[in-house]
Each structure stands twice: as structure tokens, then as C-alpha cells.
Amino acid sequence: MNDKLIIFDTTLRDGEQSPGASMTKDEKVRLAKGLERLGVDVIEAGFPIASPGDFEAVQAVANAITESTVCGLARALDKDIDRAAEALKGARSSRIHTFIATSPIHMKMKLRMEPDQVVEQAARAVQRARQHTDNVEFSPEDAGRSEIDFLCRVIEAVIAAGARTVNIPDTVGYAMPHQFGELIHQLIERVPNSDQAVFSVHCHNDLGLAVANSLSAVMNGARQVECTINGLGERAGNAALEEIVMGVRTRPDVFGCTVDHLDTTQIVTCSRLVSSITGFAVQPNKAIVGANAFAHESGIHQDGVLKSRETYEIMRAQDVGWSANRMVLGKHSGRNAFRSRLQELGIEFTSDEELNDAFARFKDLADKKHEIYDEDLQALVTDVNLAAENERIKLVYSKVCSETGETPQAQVSLWLDGVEKQASARGDGPVDAAFKAIEAIVESGTHLLLYSVNAITSGTDSQGEVTVRVEKGGRIVNGQGADTDIVIASAKAYIHALNKMLAPAQRAHPQL
Ligand code: KIV
Ligand code: ZN
Asked: Does the beta carbon of 14 lie inside 6 Å of ligand 1?
């Protein structure tokens, strides 16, 4: 057996359901392009009925992606399915993913439906989706706690109705690896028409077993895994894409299927993009994408690796996209060198104006910082993209005084809806003073939930990448900014978050 394992990425949908991880349309498109470069087969771009913003984001991803299939989520309701189909119209290849809960507790308490009604609604939903596309996926939500006889009944009915992928979610992360693998085995054995569909799994990580459960399912015949970059997702998250992919790639002797169609060298770039967009830092000891994942600290390990890498390493760092901080460009590099290095990193500009803007920022950065690494270029482009988003607030000028024994003070000047305004404030530190001055101008009424700074590269001249999370009336948004001056990076991140907060947004949750 040497089947291809289909990688279905749901970072933009389930990942975004993580509290505080909401993404703008532009961020979703940027990430979708990264996922396309990585070579994922299916990108679940969102839940179009949830809000006009979700609809537009799915539409934008559908229009931007040409290699991967773009998928939209829909409850087993005509209005959801039609809305998903509408959002996906521009896609070269699209899929509708419809679902209804099948566990006794969900059917009784949430849906208030009898099992027979659930089977009927599931089949009807798949037929409805088939009127829009041949590529229909069905999920019996909370399958991990559903009765197997009932699951067999539902699955047979949806395959007969035209579902070509049947996804088995462990919605609440309750399953154990041996049991979940056996469930997949039993379903494939017992459902009479199971050969007409690809069996997929979607595991949550509440007990830290999402990857183990997914891989156990693959060993038992599942040929699609739903996963997210960095394991982002509802509550404790979903199965981490990078762990699934590298597990299958590293142990072909165990799985009987391949992921050779993926360009794994794009993994670290995607991971960085997700953490900079959401502000969810990757823990240093996280498998594959953590900063320490390939670092050997103990003398015995270092000695072994120097003699022969395989003594302690089962994968090569460069195979997942870790490049040893390489100086790529400097002060004297020209526009062509800049553009071609970015192309090598998979970053393209849609207009000359965008390229010129990024190049001007590159020259500014090269004046402040001798050596420019790939990580700097990526942050710089993120910064250009952030600036390109709808901005009602823009930083014009800032001056911060910080002196031993004195209270730090900041003076800030902003464009607010086209009018230049100034304020000054004192604070507990220079960043606090700058934020207070910004708030004095904007009067947003938001509360700061998170402030984090990360050095993009090593060295004291490194750019600081700042993430800010703010809340107002239950709505949470993140902002990012990068600069060699940490106070300016912080001000940019705060202003980015406030710009997002000023944009309207209302959305429903798929599991409600
Ligand atoms: O966790 C879940 O059950 C889901 C479904 C919508 C597939 O996300
Ligand atoms: Zn889920």
C-alpha cells in the first residue's frame, strides 16, 4: 500500500475558533497562500454563514488559490450550504463540508432531534450540497462519543446521498489512540458502501492526544487528516499539521501512505506566519517548529551529532525550513536582489507600488541593521501588508523619554480619520507611556489582554516583533508590529489592533 495521505488544513476555520485568534480577510489570504506553497490538498477557509466577514474571507481565499481545493463549512441546513456554495464560486477547485451532531448527548440536548431525523437531515444536506459540487464532505460531529451502530447508519446514508469524504471528528478530544483507530477500522469494515468515500479524521487535543489519535486512524485506513499549523484550534487545539506530516514522512514503514506531495521546507514559514498573525507564540520545545526542536544542549548529544547527525536526529532541520540565520541581503543590495530573494521565500507582490513600499522599508531597515536575514524580510513584508489594511489610525511620530529615576514619558502624533492629533502621557515604562498617549488620542475604551515581544533574529540589533491583544465588549483582536526599536514596534502593534477593533465584525460559531 502506498496511498497518498490527503492533508486538509483547517487553520483558517477551526484554528480561528481559538479565542483571540481571529484573522482578517487579508491575513487569511496571506496564510492560505503559505499553505498552498506548502502543498496542502484542502484549505478549509471558513464558515461562510457565520458573518459577512467570514463570507468575504472565504470568497477572497477561493479567488486567490489555484493549487489547493478550497473548502467552506456549513451546518446541515440549506441556507448554510447555499451560502458556502456562493462564497466558493470563484474557486478553481472547491468542496462543501457539511456536518450534524450524532452523539446521544448532542442530539438530545443541543439539537433536540430524534436519531431518525438526524439521519434524514444529514442525507438531505449532502444531496443539497451535491447540487452545487461533486466534492462534498460530511462530518458526524462528536463521532468520538457516538454509538457505532448509529454512526454506520448515518455514514451509509450520506455516502448513498453523494458524500465523497466522510470525516470522523473527535470533537471533544475524548478518544484514546487504540480505540479511535479501531473505530475507523470498524467503520470502514461495516459500512457497506465505505469504498465509495475517503475516510478522514479530525481530532481535538483536550487530552493531548490529537496527533496520536489521528495517526492511529491513519494506521487503520483513514486517508485524510484534518489538522492545523501549530495545532491551533478550539480549546486545546487540533492535531498539529507539522507533526502529522513529519510523522508520516519519517516513518514510512509504519503508515503505508505518503505525504511526498508536500514541500515540508515551508513548514517553519507557515508556523511563523500563524504565530505572528494570531499572537500565539510557539513554545520552544514544541515538536518540529519550536525554537529548540533541533537544538542539542547536552555535551554528549552535541558530540554525537557532530560525529554523525543520525545519532540523535531523526529529521533534518532544513527539511522543515529551519535555515541557520543566514545573512541574505545588506545595505547595498538592489531592488532585483530584494525581489528575487522574496520570490525564493514564496512572497510575491501584486503591484509595483507594493514592491516599492517594501523596498523602501528594506532600505530603512538596512540602515539600522547590518545583516538582513530571511526572518527580517518576512517580518518586513508582514509589516507592509499590515499597513495596507484599512487604516483609520496611522502613526506619524513618536518620542519617548526614559531616564533612570524619572517617570517615562511619551509624545505621540497620529492620523485619526485623516486628522493629525497629538498627545503625551506618562507611564510605568516607555511602552506603557506610548500606549497611554495613543489611547488618549483614539479613546478606544479597549482593555489590553496581552503584550508580547519576540526577537526575530539573534543579536541586540534584532527587530522586535510585538503582539498585542485587546478586548472590548467581549470582542478580542490581535495586532502585530515589527521594528528594531521596540517602542515603535509596540506602538505599531497597538495601532494595528485598534484599527481592527474599529472595523465592524459579528459572527456565529459553527458548534452552536
Ligand atoms: O470538531 C468538530 O467536530 C468540528 C466539525 C465541524 C468537523 O470542527
Ligand atoms: Zn473541530
From this structure: yes
Q: Best of 139, 203, 205, 232 to mutate for ligand 1, by most ligand atoms within 8 A of CB?
A: 139
Q: How many CB atoms lie within 10 A of CB 179?
A: 13
**What are 13's three cell numbers?**
476555520
Euclidean distance between CA atoms 358 and 349, whole angstroms: 9
Q: Compute the distance between CA of residue 451 and CA of residue 26 in angstroms, rounded to an integer.
A: 22
* pLDDT tens digits along 397-411: 999 999 999 999 999
Taking the CA atoms of residue 157, residue 163, residue 169 and residue 171 in that order, the dihedral angle to the nearest 10 degrees is: -80
Which residue has better confidence, 310 or 39? 39
- Which amino acid, one-letter code, is at 258? T
How many contiguous H segments (helices) and E segments (strands) does the chain have?
A: 17, 18
Assign 512 a pLDDT band (cuts: 50, 70, 90). Answer: low
Question: Side chain identity at 174, as an amino acid letter?
Answer: Y
- Alpha-carbon distance of 17 to 233, in angstroms, equals 6
CA dist., res. 348 & res. 378, Å (int): 11
**Mean pLDDT, range 280-294, rounded to an integer:** 90
The runs of H, that is alpha helices, within 251-350 are 252-255, 267-278, 299-307, 335-344
How high is the pLDDT of residue 384?
65
Return the CATH architecture of domain 390-502.
2-Layer Sandwich (3.30)
Annotated domain spans of the chain: 3-263, 390-502
CA distance 439 to 189: 62
- Kindly report the number of other CB atoms within 10 A of residue 258's CB atom: 14
Residue whose CA is closest, atom 4 of ligand 1?
171
Question: 3-state SS of 13-56?
Answer: CCHHHCCCCCCCHHHHHHHHHHHHHHCCCEEEEECHHHCHHHHH
Rounded Cα distance, 134 and 96, in Å:
9
Order of strands across the sheet that contains 409-416: 393-401, 409-416, 419-426
Among 62, 36, 35, 34, CA closest to 48 = 62
The percent helix, strand, coil of the chain (3-state, each to 5) is 45, 20, 35
Write the CATH number of the domain with boundaries 3-263: 3.20.20.70
Q: Which class for 244: exposed (0-12), middle (13-18), buried (19 or more C-beta within 10 A)?
A: buried
Return the residue whose CA atom lies nearest to atom 2 of ligand 1. 171
Q: Tell how far CA 440 is from the center of its chain.
A: 33
The residue with cell 492526544 is: 209
Q: Using an 8 Å Cβ cutoff, are 199 and 223 in contact?
A: yes
Return the ligand number nearest the Cα of 228. 2
85 φ, ψ to 5°? -60, -40
